[in-house]
Fold:
Amino acid sequence: MAVEAAVSLVLRKLSNFLIQEAVYLYEVRDQVEWVERELKRMQCLLKDADAKQSGDERVKNWVADVRDVAYDAEDVIDTFILKIEQRRSGYAGFFKRFMRIHIELLSRRQVGNEIERIKNKIQEISASRLTFGIIDVGEGSSFKGESLRRQRQTSPLFGETEVIGFEEDIKTLVGRLIKGDSRRCVVSVVGMGGLGKTTLAIKVYNNDAVKKHFDCCAWIFVSQEYVERDLLQSIIKCFMTLTKEELEMAEKMNSVFLLTTRNREVASYADARSSPHELQLLGDEEVWKLFCKKAFLEQGIHYQQNLEKLGKEIVAKCCGLPLAIVAIGGLLSRKSTDPNEWEKVLQKISSQSVDDESRIARILALSYEDLPYRLKPYFLYFGVFPEDHEIRAKKLIQLWVAEGFVEPTGDETMEEAAEDCLEELIHRSLIQVVKRNSIGRVKSCRIHDLLHELSISKAREDKFLDVHHGNTNPLSPSKARRLAIHHATSKYTSLNRANPHLRSVLCITLDSGWLGKKQEDFLYRGFNLLRVLYLDVSNRKLPNEIGTLIHLRYLGFKVGGLTSLPSSISNLHNLETLHVEEGISIIYIPNSIWKMKQLRHVDVSYGRIINKGVWSKMVGRPSLGLDCLVNLQTLKRVEAGDWIEDCLGKLTTLKKLGVYEMHNSWQTKGLSNSLPKLDLLQSLRLHWWRTIPVFMPFSHHLHLKKMFLSGTLKKLPESYEFSPNLTKLTLASSQLMKDPMATLEKLPNLRILRLCYNSYMGKEMICSAQGFPQLKSLQVERLPELVEWRVEEGAMLRLLHLLICECSTLKRLPEGLQHVTTLEKLEVQRMPGEFNARMLENRGDDWHKIQHIPSLKIQ
Structure:
């Protein structure tokens, strides 16, 4: 029940309000404290109410009343804070100060009246709960973050797709794709939702025989609402490495499409001459194997004997549907091994005699209901994103923090606590991992469309979220706290459905465009209490009105044309995240941004801090005040400036730093002096204009996992000068003359290495035996002088992926590559025809080096 989380959020806000605004509350403080105490008491009642509301409409209404009164209290607090802030910045002089005092007295009287109304409502709700027999059962269940952190560090690095029982289907579909009709055709896979169609399609798409048969392949998701242009662009992105001539050739080829759909009519319409492949339900043995893989993930195999009978009864209710099996298995993996606990789950599934589809929906709903209350808003938040949307974990976590969901414990940061919650949802099989990074953390994720429908349904029921699609009218948003717009913003604003209660607006559109004056007024003047604003638009600048949204915690844009941020942005003193994605030009950032003391993440596309102010002009240097940013964790894609020398060393909480356009000695000196003080750094990206004058050692940066260095290096540092825990390294434009492999292969934890664009200008490269003990991915790109490459036996014993791109003078594949038996994928891009000819199957001179590699891709 998201209501418990909503009450918890309001309680935290009340507590902060009583501390921070005490001077303004001397007449109403007692009333506010009373509201805080009563809401705490009600929070302890909600778990019992949650257990009873599914069978009693009156209890359901009681829970809704608790939610509404909590929302009312939040509205009063936020509106009062807004008025205080407006008056702090809007009055000067004796007369104006007198008017400010007079209006503040009126405001306190008004807030007192509002709180008195809320008190009366709370008293009514409290008295009525006795009628329904609702009792205090404490704060409810939770989960242990420490165990999750251990799981997170040991999570698999590449792929997490569960495939059991599809062997024959894969064999059949692969055969139809590579041995079927020579005409352009569509091979469809049909079946009910949750049957595993997408999982099967992924396995077929990644099949070695399929990859070798087709010159190029593309994977896209087509949701119920889509824009043809975006689909075409997604396909083109998959072919970006092809030359113009290869693209033209591809257009003339007969292509084969693999389509998954629940609707047999769609399959027939796509290709009437191709019979669809109907995916069947899993058999009993396959069902039990999949269930055990999920339910007994953390428990010894001996537990199966104790729970096997109950487990098989539970599995029988899943109707052979993989999605339901992994969902209920994920739920039980978090339960005690006491058979009584499993019996309760079985009874809930069997409580009603319904058809298969209704029972599946009930199983998925049960997985949601079983979540600890603190996790429910995290799950509901996935309804914000469009169907089949690939969600970046970093962005999702920052949004969760800004929404106020996160309650860290111990010494962990809010971002770490949020990451634990994401991992918990993954382990419960409610969320799917799409990609993990080099150290095993989630990079992007997705939610199954049936669970997506569930998240939206539950979110609307709790007035947690309202979603507006292009072809539907929005539900009445009179109390919804969040609004997601999945189409052009102008279509929604034309409905003139303003909602002063909104805390979040996210425009994640399929057809992003420009915001007109009407749309800007709608967004920046209509919602004064916003905490989160994300826009998928193309405007070149933001209006000054953005500075009136003083409650904002998250401000994000996915734009192509934004060039500047207004100075009024410094009024957003609660802002935690400023994120500008995919910019194509320099974005000018006002110097005043550094007044925003709550900033945690600044991630912009080619940001440039502009130096303004009288003091700057007098002494010729900016007064940035970066030392005030005691919470800053991310500062990425920002142009170098005097701020490096003046302030960087004071940002001791930084975890991610990215600076470009460094070109003079004092910037380098400032960097050398500052970096040793930033011992929490996890990711570092530095771009020099030309030569890197000196390389500072990073051996004491124990948290540093990722480095990207661009610029001429006079000499590659010794291996002991790098962080001992470095997992990913990229070198670009380094102009090294000495073979870098002799040094880099000694890095004990390096998993990903990219040597890019003139990073090495020598003719010979050697990977020696026992070198690169942990390396899993190696990319060698645009090394124009490389002629010979040798891999000694025993080198790179864990390598999975190798990319060779635009090394025009390289004569042949590395000698000794045949000894790297772990290699799963070799990609060769834009190499000379003679080089490619050596890899021809059975007759190329280099075929013996690669015949053991499952996947070979030549472009």
Observations:
- The two ends are 51 Å apart (CA to CA).
